[in-house]
Amino acid sequence: MAHNGRLTVDQKVKVVLFYAETNSVVATQRRFRAHFGARWAPSRQFTDFVLEKKRPRPASVGLRGFDKKSQQISQGGLLLS
Hints:
Elements: H1 9-22, H2 25-36, H3 44-54, H4 66-74
């Protein structure tokens, strides 16, 4: 662990790689302990947080108001922008 109580970049990368291989938080924690020779391992909440940042999210830009415009077009309404 880094001197300020946070994980280093290498440790964060290993958490993601270990989880990708095992798909188990407990197995990830065990492999982390074995790899780094530590008595502690990142918590389930931290592991979920790191993985959430790495997951691709569906794009939602420009979808607001899309249904209203499509309804106006399908009803033959005039759409001026």
